[in-house]
Structure prediction request, 1032 residues.
Amino acid sequence: MHFLHGFLLFLEVKMKILVIGGGIVGSLLTKELSKYENIDVTLVEANYDLGAGVTKANSAILHGGYDDEPSTLRAKLCARGNKMYDDLVDELGVPVQRTGSLVVSEGNDGDKKKIIELYKRGIANGVSGMKIVEGEELRKIEPYLSPVFKYGLYCSSAGITEPWIVAINSGRLAESNGAEIMLGDRVVGGLVRNKRAVSAVLNSGKKIQADIFINCAGLYYEEIAKYFDVEVEKVLLRKGEYLLLDKAAKQFVNGVIFPLPTKMGKGKLILPTIDGGVFLGPTSEDLKSFDPEDLATTRNGLEEILKSSDELVPGISKFNWIIKSFAGLRPETEGKDFIIKRDEEISNFITVGGIRSPGLTAAPAISEYVINEILNGQMNIKLIKKEKIVERIPAKIRVREESFERISELIEKDELYGRIICQCNQVSEREIVDAVHSGARTIESVKLRTRAGFGRCQGGFCTWKVAKIISRETGIELEELIMNNENSYLLEGKVR
Amino acid sequence: MMKGINTDVLVIGGGAGGMAAALSAAREKSDVILLERENSTGGVLNQCIHNGFGLHFYKEELTGPEFADKLFNEMTLDRVNIISESYVSEVDVENKTVRVLSPDGAYEIYAKAIVIATGARERPFGALMIPGDRPSGIYTAGLAQRFVNLENRLPGKRALILGSGDIGLIMARRLVLEGMKVEAVVERMPFPGGLLRNIVQCLEDYNIPLYLSHTVTKTVGRGRLEKVEVSEVDENYNPIPGTEKIYDVDTLILSAGLIPQVEDISDSLQLDRVNKGYAVSNSCETNIDGIYAAGNNVAVFDLVDYVAAEGWVAGRHAALKSKGGENNTEKYPVIRGKNVSILVPSYIDFNESLRLYLRISKPIEHGRVILKELNIEKKFVDGVPSEMIQMVLNKKKMELIREKGGLFVEVVEDE
Amino acid sequence: MNRKITCVMCPVGCRITVEMNGDEPVISGNRCTRGRQYVIDELIKPKRVLTTSVKVEDGDLPLVSVKTSGPIEKKIIMDKMKEIKKKTVGAPVKIGEIIIENIDGNGVDLLATRKVKKIHK
Prediction:
């Protein structure tokens, strides 16, 4: 690699990096790599938008970072990643709310021991804003918490975000800085020669040659590794089902509420969502076979969520507040820790795998780790920052978040700000048109980017309008439009 | 620049209820502004191209678009000001100030009285907690109706309909007429949710089976919907294992109930626990002075004619209030007795006659509505929850309510 | 024979009872005369009002909603749909305008139930 590197510099040829997988990890990494002069980065993502896999269907929490043993990558990168989100707010316009988190217990001796253990671990991991709370103080943080809970760990640095926006906006910034983003195409094979990965073969038939390959393929990371003769730990899929509640439920929840963690994970939580709803879940069920498209909810799972959330906040399941149920998968491994390493055999292939909780929180730190520890460190590549880069993506106007006076002014210049398409979340036509112009091609892409269709009517009133706007702005016929993946067409054809 | 406008009466919502309210307020010589979120008034009437509307309100049988057109023409003649494509962003119910966004600009409207006619929304698929995949091809009946009747697009090839509400039944027929195969309508309750007339002319006429006490227990399909599993349910609506049946359909249409749109206006407006809509008096006034509500945001009505009739009452009283003419704070409660679910109004005042609307909570072959305080009974046969029972009482008959301090409404089942 | 028929003439949906007194039907339970006619038709020659839509060219909407001016025989509805599917009208369309004259051969017309404006491309 030393040799190659010098050679490239000498010829003033850029080093080509292919990032496989545009979840939050791959997208953030691509964004960072796009800031270097001597790197030419391409990101390939199988879905029609970034952040549409594991990134889309998880709890969307910024964890404090007290859960994992200090020796693990999970612990190191979680606490660091949490802090890095402050910069992402500025750089990517990512919504972050530091709502705080609360691990609750009934307060018997065993429970107290566990809470204190978490606290100590948090200190060792460098987590800020922790505090053991009980009695009145606990109640003040979450007034509707069940009275059986008496002792807990509060962490003010924990919070919530919209993970897919981190991925999507990373992609946008990366593109502004010269990265190439390929959506809707999948790596289906790899070419390895003399212990070096040479090129990736895509579903479309395209071949991409690169000097370095970085596998961020999430659930598919083992499959991708195989294409390049790289051996990795077996991926085990764990399903988590969720319920989304109407904004009306938000009055009962201030921050992220966890039960005491068990060996199956952090348990079933209650937490607010960025757009003002409430999440319940997830369940935790290991899939019997490798089926990364199995996102089916189950009767047992959904009932389990209702039961457990009622134990945390009594009555929360009793109202007719449920507006959506769905499931996500997370890539687990036997070893449990993140796997971030350069392969020993195929030395230009980097694996970033097994990124389960707290992967979202850790993601910015994972990208930093790949660059500093692996590219700069182990591979000794002298990365040169570009002299001029686009530092941030332009701030996006959300009509719902602006003052009435400000929107009045905006409408004067652009009437699209005054035409509200999604009534539940107050999303204007301007926001939807902008989402389409920035690459959204599906109903779900528009929804994830703008929150149109996320509210209590779940798109009952606005789906046809969103569909017509996408069609008008792109020329795609209504009957060709899809909801998310390639077979998810919306309509059959014309009536007349 | 935000524009400030003064008006006597502001109507929020331009469906049947809101249009009737705006028109009747205008007929009382009030200045009226109507806020409509779409680019034309009419609401769901525009896509309800079937007939059966207007028999009470216009004394002629009309289709939805015709009904909407008639009301619109009358409003135009009576100089109702319409702000279309508008969105209500803030309501101050105490000061009757409403902030509105529209492509033409932002407005702050200062009204003397407000009629809220925001209608209902369809219960979304997500609320039903149906296990399985989350593919495309799952539509609420109203959205499917929009695509078919106004956007010229068919949703799929083969459909199953979950829920037997009227829009679901109407859509079953509509899809068959346009060449789709409709496998069945399944209804979780042991009785249909829509009008019997629609069971006959939409299902029986086209040999579409209706399975009562059945529900969808799984959706299958990783891109587009491919199959649904239907199971029979027991008396507690739990699926009975072993009764599963698979239907190969690419479309699932939901007609699983309407929910009054009462959120986002103001938390200080009182709701009725069972109707899940605004609690109003017989002059359609809410608990806040000068704020009226009418139509499906009060309770889900079975006929658009009733919605229009209530809108008319609301508009008239809002107009009277705006002129300072009506200040009767005397209100008596209407109390729900046995076998009664939906019940309108929640209060009785003496500004208006009493139009009592109720739904029975289960099918009753021979029954009587009993208004004990008034010594009034109304007999009925073959009563079903999907069809409202309406009773009209004039002010004179209502006098006893004042004496008794309220009105108790119950339904008894006769042999 | 004693048969109950739900009248579909209006949303009231009267449950009308028909008893045969020899060859004479005895009808009860109808709240208006339309119900009586409906039941007699239903016994001999069931009829329905057909509502659907017709393609529009150069309109502000792609379709115009239509209805038959009166009930037509139930058994011809699917056939008539085939005819309607082939029909195209040019905008503007006025409400009440005849789209297909005498569609059932018995004097019932197909009428537009909304207006469609012409758009100039």
